[in-house]
Amino acid sequence: MSGHDFHPLVKQLLDGDITLADLPAELRAEGEDALRLLAAVDRTDVSVPAVTWRVMAALERRRRPVLPWLLAPALALAAALILWILPAKPATPAALVTVRFVLVAPEAREVSLAGTFNQWDAHATPLVRTGPTGVWTATLTLPAGQHQYAFVVDGVRWVPDPGAPAVDDGFGRRNSVLTL
Amino acid sequence: MRPDAKVADGEIVRAVLAGDRERYAQLVERYRDRYARYAARMLGSADAAEDAVQDAFVRAYDQLAQCKEPDKFVGWFFLILRNRCFAERRRDRTSTSLKAAEGVAAEDRTDGGAETAERRRALQLALLELTPDQREVFVLKHVEELSYGEIAERLSTSVASLKMRMHRAYDKLREQLRDHT
Question: A62 vs A21, which has greater pLDDT?
Answer without folding.
Answer: A21
